[in-house]
Amino acid sequence: MAKSFLSIENLAKRFPAPKGQRDPLTVFENVSFTINKGEFVCIIGHSGCGKSTIMNILAGLDAASEGYVFMNDREVSGPSLDRGIVFQNYSLLPWLSALKNVTFAVKARHPDWSKAQVKEHSYKYLQMVHLGDGAEHRKPSQLSGGMRQRVSIARAFAIQPELLLLDEPFGALDALTRGTIQDELLDVWSSTQQTVFMITHDVDEAIYLADRILLMTNGPYARIAESVEVSIPRPRTRDTLVDDPAYYQIRNHLVHFLARRSKEMSENQDKIQPAPPEVVRFTTAQGSDPRPPVQLWERHPPPQERKKAV
């Protein structure tokens, strides 16, 4: 079987023992899964299970206590422009316009490009998220929350990273704006076919956007228990999504996991042997999903035999 694009192997995050205790605080451990090239994967779990910490490790902004992350068969070590990030709080440079926020990143990615090339490329991605007609010249303080998040998404896609990391990018937006930008995100993703790993607390958002949904048990000692395949055909629209028989099966499964089983599995953690997440698949309106099973975990050679990513 071909190597996966992204491989997470036996990842764990531990903090020093709190005052008065002997054992370190283990946020999560034995986290192993893979992501294929061009796949859109969401991860869901209760607060405190370590979702954002996993994302920070993938981004190279944090270090794991144990385990490894490999991208393109090279160990992830530190931040890189090959990995773009969109945070919930926009993270825009307040003294620059929307366009210059994007060109700033594009210049770093393509230092050999001319000023005209950088501007044309940046503006193209702003147009993909429907920002133009003068809005590109406004500073973040002059933009609405939804428009600021559009700039963040355009900037992340514009540097053309191999992996795009989204940390609850729509959590602070109202429902109407969130739905609009979700559609824009899917439009850009479908045209670029970049690989996306996204944190969300919204079950319906995950079903609408993702190819697969990873489910985490409660922390401490959290782990990824299941990988739910969203076999509903693309392109998806909200009005037809609910007509697919798999929609309510998937939704009920996710809600049931979050409401009950994530806690139960966490309480029985000591009885479970480390293993890759269980694959969960439901039938769609078109019958059985013809896609081959996703490879969820694989062993790599020891890290000393591999090259580290720049």
How would you describe this structure in keywords?
single chain; 310 residues; alpha/beta; Rossmann fold; seven-stranded mixed β-sheet; four-stranded antiparallel β-sheet; 8 helices; globular
Uncertain stretches of 5 or more adjacent residues: 286-304
What is the count of β-strands?
Answer: 11
| Shape call | globular
Strand order in space, largest sheet? 6-7-8-3-9-10-11
Q: Number of DSSP helices?
A: 8
Q: Please, what is the oligomeric state?
A: single chain
Report how far apart the termini are. 26 Å
Number of domains: 2
Helix % is: 25-40%
Strand content: 15-25%
Written as H for each helix and E for each strand, in order along the chain, the element string is EEEHEEEHHHEHEHEEHHE
Rg on CA atoms, Å: 20 Å
Q: What is the top-level CATH class of the largest domain?
A: Alpha Beta
